[in-house]
Amino acid sequence: MLDDMTTHDITRPPLSPTPRTTLTRSKERGRTDRADLDAVLDAGLVCHLGVLLGGAPVVVPTIYGRAGDTLYLHGSTGAGNMRAAIGTEISLAVTHVDGVVYSRSAMHFSMNYRSAVVRGKAVLVTDEAERLAAMRLIVEHAAPGAWDRVRPPNRKEMAATMVLAVDLTEASVKVRTGGPGDDAADIAAGGVWAGVLPLRQVWGEPIGADDLEPGVAVPDDVAVRVAPDTLPVS
Amino acid sequence: MLDDMTTHDITRPPLSPTPRTTLTRSKERGRTDRADLDAVLDAGLVCHLGVLLGGAPVVVPTIYGRAGDTLYLHGSTGAGNMRAAIGTEISLAVTHVDGVVYSRSAMHFSMNYRSAVVRGKAVLVTDEAERLAAMRLIVEHAAPGAWDRVRPPNRKEMAATMVLAVDLTEASVKVRTGGPGDDAADIAAGGVWAGVLPLRQVWGEPIGADDLEPGVAVPDDVAVRVAPDTLPVS
């Protein structure tokens, strides 16, 4: 099949006991280790959140943080899509595309990828300490090591922010690696190149803000991301 | 706001007349040009599709193709998430992360990004010529120039495939570029680095399949993607 990324109605017993996330197709691509889920989530910068809005789903990108089995989202208190998520069943996905798989026949073209799909209730976090901890997780997820050297949120900023928690129990991971899976007849016919064109994300050199005063060096937490041995991002 | 990516309940008149996609926040980031939508969609490899399943949304990654105002999806006829989409209101999003925006205060950390959010009905395509044309668009979207040199889908493969069409009228685009938007007091306080750490996707060198016979060269359509002047991907 050209693309079975959508058959993500997975989940393996260690992650979820519910029938609605049981692996139904492409079983070989489902991963059963909790660590696989954490790895896919932790390597991502943005998730896609699906919320029911006016009777139909809407999918929007958003940043996130994770602590153990809990994923945190946040948004402005005025953000309609986040407000709609409160207390409702949502879904979110994180996908890394690692390459395009070129095959000898059109229907066997594919992607190499790692993806995680989560379903669960988005619970409004009201405890102020947990809210602040979640904001730290979210900022540190996007910019590891930055939180402690910048101004923390003040009361007004926190008041304008909603934080949502999603339990990661009902989740699935799929990973595809390696070359094409061509039909024997197409391989035997010969003459058509097949293989993988790898894709990766890389950081560029940091660009100081226009309003940055002279003499402020790029901090270590930023510099280390660009260091050659830390590439690629994912 | 640290993250306003979620306020994607946009859309601008040229793309959509419906109230449910009217821009409500972050107006400066909404784009009004149809070409902006096309550019974000065309630069993506994977979209995230949100489908209503058992009363709650589920978000899965999938590949796609576009022809004018129509986006095409496909899946195995046995794929539950795609089957659930048929004839229903779905949403899909494509997001490119272009960098992490480092600010002087935690709440102003952000991402530079380009994202498109589409809402609409997923219509099952039944005309065989349109189905085949859609498969070509999807393969060519993932691997431009490859279709004509590989074996086309046969009748059995097409019978096992469903193709869905989504109208792109109800869509929105948001783009964030540039440096942080710090508070004046934080800028005045000084001493904290702020700026952007750019992120981009790059192709690696093509890797021939294990079962590729000797002497089959990397085709031009693959080689051109890796050529230095065609990097980055997005």
TrEMBL record, chains A, B:
Keyword Oxidoreductase: yes
EC primary class: oxidoreductase
Residue stretches of biased makeup (Basic and acidic residues): 1-11
Recorded superkingdom: Bacteria
SUPFAM superfamilies for this protein: FMN-binding split barrel
EC numbers on record: 1.-.-.-
Pfam families registered for this protein in UniProt: Pyridox_ox_2
Region (Disordered): 1-31
Record's keyword terms, sorted: Oxidoreductase
Database matches in Gene3D superfamilies: Electron Transport, Fmn-binding Protein, Chain A
Keyword Transcription attributed: no
GO MF term (any one): oxidoreductase activity
Name of this chain's protein: Pyridoxamine 5'-phosphate oxidase family protein
Species of origin: Nocardia rhizosphaerae
